[in-house]
Design a protein that fits this description.
The protein has an 8-stranded parallel beta barrel, surrounded by 4 helices. The chain is 29% helix and 22% strand. By secondary structure, the protein is α/β, with parallel strands linked by helices. It has 20 helices and 30 strands. The chain is elongated.
């Protein structure tokens, strides 16, 4: 899982990811009525897995229209058409805000009722041209609004917000950027008024503030966002003191407790994001020319709560999945941005169905043999359940397999997907299984007893799956299977540990070692453990009576009379363990497949491998949930650091406890 794919709270909603689709004019509505076309239902529905969709700019009243074939929200027919869009988005689990965009002077009489003159704060003609159905036409000089008309326009925005909720939208965004009417009031170059809406910065900001107050009063502040773009300069607009102007605006609206502030970047020497982020205590959306990497960077640095993508979303309806898979992106076709019809609107190709990202070993040796691949999603066979993997435990076994040192014990047909334990949610189950027990969305975890956990989707035998207790999250659940089952089975079943015996846990600071100390203590054994000094207190707290530095334990000054050694380290350290044993002592090693060839005369040693045991795993999970067992997690990593985690586990460079990677 990347930071882009984590949840975030915006207003009254929790978004499943931090990707926001920017409002983008698409010009597919009926030009005479402002009614969105049926194509819009498909267009927004295709992109519903975004954390939040913000619609194209939509005029709140007939005089707000500024472009050919753009939609409105002031008539019953428009509301009815938008209802189809919101129903489709919500049916797909999405969330959608309507952007309210009054173009003001950036319009043309041919777009307005009765050929009316565009309206603006002041009668100042913009440079440039309007785009009409017949082609480009020069902008005209707008008519300055009276004070009473400005007050009435605030109420037009209020009514538009009411209609947006009637249409099923989750909220609205005020477009106060790109040179449209709200920014025309705010900017010194377009506002030369002498009433209470002009002159000082506070007066020029008044219209935006009053509109936001009206929207909040009508539908709730937590349903209202605002977009600004300092110094973008689009549509012939500028301000004499932009840093002071936008600083004042953001400080003024901060107490309103809006759902978010959306700031589109511009190429300026001044860092507006740093400045405005510090002034706004709520959710901050950052947009403008982002990539996956830069979006993650801004979130990681705390510079944004969510990031906004425009043309990347236009051309990639499945952008959330493409970012998750690091898949190539479609290139946007600028020639069809504002054309009529489906071309360049709803026909951008999706990833092939069944894309499943996996970490596979292609060659033994260096870590470069590990690669992310796209493979088909498996189809569950009889008695199997398809699980969407959310977290997976990282084990030293992964590194040993990578090096090729276990090829005799684990012969593999390469490429092979690594990972042996997972936690996630049920996607669907085979028809011969209980549909209630394995309903979609049910949280489950498992020890696979084979490789294959490092994947988005894994088919798992139902008899290996355990339901995750309500008190446990999926990261904790993913940390339990291998560690707890290995410790129990190696000590109690293979090792035959009995009350009163002395056991030495060699390498007790890891996940397996932590459970082994607890199980041995509970069984009534005298528990000795090896661990570095930095982890000694942790191991003692779990129940070890004596914690010994590994080098000392393996020397002639180490412990003797040990009945059972659980070896979790292997390698050359194995030679030093035999001298610790009592005459009837034995070694169970999880790390030395060749132990039987290395047993000295009269010695007893066996290599142990874990096997799935759903009943025992369910019991352990319940005890961890109730606090009767401790499952210590040393580190939780994002998927991009998985290869690094495997290498460090293999080399022994790791914190105490278990390493877990978030997969999605």
């Amino acid at each position: 899982m990347t930071l882009l794919h984590t949840t975030v709270r915006i207003g009254r909603m929790t978004l499943p990811n931090r990707l926001v689709m920017a409002p983008m004019t698409r010009s597919r509505a009926n030009d005479s009525t402002g009614v969105p076309s049926e194509l819009a239902v498909t267009y927004y529905g295709q992109r519903a897995d975004a954390g939040l969709l913000v619609t194209e700019g939509t005029f709140p009243c007939a005089m707000g229209k500024g472009y050919v074939r753009t939609p409105g929200i002031h008539s019953d027919a428009q509301v009815e058409a938008w209802q189809k869009v919101t129903r489709e988005v919500h049916a797909r689990g999405g969330r959608i805000f309507l952007q309210l965009m009054h173009c003001g002077r950036i319009s043309h009489p041919s777009l307005l009722p009765g050929g009316a003159q565009p309206v603006a704060p002041s009668a100042i003609r913009p440079a440039g041209q309007a785009w009409l159905a017949t082609g480009p036409a020069d902008f005209v000089t707008p008519r300055a609004l009276t004070t009473e008309e400005v007050e009435a326009l605030v109420q037009d925005f209020r009514l538009a917000a009411r209609r947006a909720l009637q249409a099923g939208f989750d909220g609205v965004e005020l477009h106060a950027a790109s040179g449209y009417l709200p920014e025309q009031f705010l900017s010194s170059s377009t506002n030369q008024r002498t009433d209470r809406y002009g002159g000082s910065i506070a007066n020029r900001a008044r219209f935006i503030v009053e509109v936001l107050e009206a929207l909040a009063a009508e539908i709730g502040a937590d349903r209202v966002g605002i977009k600004i773009s300092p110094e973008m300069g689009f549509n012939d607009i500028h301000d004499a003191t932009p840093v002071e102007t936008y600083g004042h605006l953001v400080r003024t609206i901060a107490p309103l407790q809006l759902a978010y502030l959306h700031v589109a970047g511009a190429h300026t020497a001044f860092d507006y994001h740093e400045h405005l982020r510090s002034l706004f205590p709520g959710v901050y959306l950052l947009g403008g020319g982002l990539s996956k990497a830069t979006g993650e960077h801004h979130i990681a640095k705390g510079e944004a709560d969510a990031v906004v993508f425009g043309s990347a979303y236009l051309a990639n309806p499945d952008l959330v999945q493409r970012f998750a898979l690091d898949a190539l992106l479609n290139a946007p076709d600028r020639d069809t941005f504002y054309s009529d019809g489906p071309g360049g609107y709803i026909d951008y190709p999706l990833l092939p169905p069944g894309s499943n990202r996996t970490l596979r070993l292609h060659a033994y040796g260096g870590s470069e043999g590990l690669r992310e691949d796209l493979v088909p999603v498996p189809t569950p066979g009889s008695g199997e359940v398809l699980v969407h993997v959310r977290a997976a435990g990282v084990n030293a076994l992964d590194g040993k397999i990578r090096t090729g040192s276990l090829t005799q014990a684990f012969p593999l047909a390469l490429p092979a997907t690594l990972g042996i334990e997972l936690a996630g949610e049920v996607v669907h189950a085979a028809e011969d299984l209980d549909p209630v027990r394995f309903a979609p969305g049910t949280r489950v975890f498992a020890a696979l007893g084979r490789l294959g956990a490092y994947a988005d989707y894994v088919a798992v035998p139902a008899d290996q799956l355990v339901h995750v207790p309500e008190a446990l999250d999926l990261v904790t659940a993913a940390s339990l299977p291998v560690a707890s089952l290995t410790a129990w089975q190696a000590l109690m079943e293979t090792g035959g540990l009995r009350s009163g015996e002395t056991v030495l846990i060699h390498g007790a600071a890891g996940g397996v070692g932590g459970f082994a100390v607890q199980f041995a203590k509970r069984a009534g054994a005298r528990v000795l453990a090896t661990a570095r000094a930095s982890n000694a207190e942790h191991v003692r707290a779990l129940g070890a009576e004596q914690v010994i530095e590994p080098e000392l334990a393996l020397s002639t000054r180490g412990p003797t009379g040990v009945d059972l050694v659980l070896d979790l380290v292997g390698g050359e350290t194995l030679a030093g363990l035999w001298r610790a044993l009592s005459p009837a002592g034995r070694i169970v090693s999880t790390c030395a497949p060749d132990i039987e060839a290395r047993v000295p005369p009269g010695g007893r040693g066996v290599w142990f491998t874990m096997r799935p045991d759903a009943r025992r795993l369910a019991q352990v999970a319940q005890e961890v949930a109730e606090g009767r067992l401790v499952g210590h997690i040393g580190e939780v990593l994002d998927r991009g650091r998985l290869v690094d985690a495997i290498e460090r586990r293999h080399m022994g460079h790791r914190p105490a406890g278990k390493s877990v990677v978030r997969m999605n």
